[in-house]
Amino acid sequence: MNLSLYGFGERGFGERGPEDEWIAVDCGMMIRQDLPDSPLQVPNLDTLTALGIRPRALIITHGHEDHIGAAAWLWPKWGCPIHATPLAAGLLRAKFIERGLATDAIRVIEPGEALECGPFTLRYLPLTHSIPESCALLLAAGEHRVLHTGDWKLDPEPLIGKPMSAATFRAIAPVDLVVGDSTNAPMPGHSRSEGEVARALEHTIARCEGRVVVSCFASNLARVLAIGHAAQRNGRRVSLMGRSMERMVAVARGLGYLDDFPPLVPVSDLGYLPPNEVLVIATGSQGEPRAALSRLARGRHHAMELGAGDSVIFSAKAIPGNELLIERLKSGLKRLGVTLLDEFSHPELHASGHPAQEELRTFYGWVKPRHLLPVHGEPRHQQAHRELAEPLGIQAPLIPLNGDLIRLDAEGLSLVSRHPQPPCIVSQNAVAPLPGLAGPNQGPRHGSLYLALSVTATGEGGWTRIGRLMLDASQASPIDEEAFTDWLDETLETLTGDTLAELRLALQPRLMGWFADHLRRLPEIHLQILAVEAPSASELG
């Protein structure tokens, strides 16, 4: 959930707050898997409002969701120009159009180009990451030169794009400050190349016999391309599952990044192919309940079923906090008899997009920073980054927290003030403080929604739905009934209670949360729950 602000003023910081000109770098979101229905969390702008900070431009380093995902929600408060490389700009335009926003403010800048914004001169410096067109930013203002690395790694074989140019970064040395990626700072050695992963995927898929599903992040186009080539070389047809995957591939193809990608088979045609000719690239590696892979694990995907002899490859690392959802997903796949290959049993099938220790040392040998501000990751990653930098003669006096206001001047880095950042959740098509996320009385209600479901106790403390769901939403906003039914079935499995009254008490607030996140206007909800006995095996026979 990245949002950095850079301000410059000849007089420094006055008693009433920062003065002069500001720019924003990146504007990302995160998914709150710990809240009902996994809503979006975006940066809190209260501090900027209180300090009188209004950026005159938004600068995007690359197209990952944690760097662009909040722009369509927060940019309307600023209305400033947005500068992004072609791929990130294309993804942003799609998001803005979905939200009904004009896209005129989105301006394309090519990697390697420079622009001026008030007192700032910025240059986009190409580097390698797990999405094309990732760039570091060299910011110059007054006598100071700051390198904001964004996310990066040293990949000699990136598959899409060129390896990083040592000459480019040596040419800007020395810099006063690096604001640098700490994600893999505790990891010794060097991260794996995308070229290595591509070869491992090809060899692994060659050994699979039934259907193969490979799950990865949609934005990792090099990985998507590698999977497509591996499928083609092993006589398999490729299909995409997941809206974000389809969108990413469409935007990338429009920019010429996937010209040699094999022809795609529509998902609806998969049932006509022999299992050993099927390969699906699917979203859902983090266990997202509504993603394609979770639907397959529950046997609820309309186009394909998985079973014994099929294989699922996780070509993505678990994001901290998602472990429970991922384990639930894997348990569902195992119950189907599917063979699982993941980062633990087959680490060669994934590569991180962030630099390990030898890459950091090499990079700092090029740019020769005087100071380091370690960002990204958790405090232990930042501390490891700091400990790596100091023996290299790089001063790293601070481990910043979200909301820290930090000064860089002739004396180096210093903490000016600390501003807590309470969570902000995207709810009911608007940004709201977290306490109002699932409140039944938040905002106006429009229309009525009637819901009746028959349930039976599972014997394991949970509940399961029996028979058809009765849903009348004719007086309310349109609803995706398939997504709602999938969510409801999964939620019922997790709820405990000995009586229908206890079940209602547990289910009602979750229902309110789901509808608040998925309907433009929240209706009055009428819930009826009926208890029935599950049919016995003899009755079914």
TrEMBL record:
Signal peptide range in chain numbering: none
Keyword Hydrolase: yes
This protein's UniProt keywords: Exonuclease, Hydrolase, Metal-binding, Nuclease, RNA-binding, Zinc
GO molecular function terms listed in the Swiss-Prot or TrEMBL record: hydrolase activity
Domain Metallo-beta-lactamase: 9-190
Enzyme class name: hydrolase
Known EC number: 3.1.-.-
Pfam families: Lactamase_B, RMMBL, RNase_J_b_CASP
InterPro entries assigned: Metallo-B-lactamas, RibonucZ/Hydroxyglut_hydro, RMMBL, RNase_J_2, RNase_J_b_CASP
SUPFAM superfamilies: Metallo-hydrolase/oxidoreductase (SSF56281)
Database matches in SMART domains: Lactamase_B
Protein name: Ribonuclease J
Species in which this protein is naturally found: Halomonas alkalicola
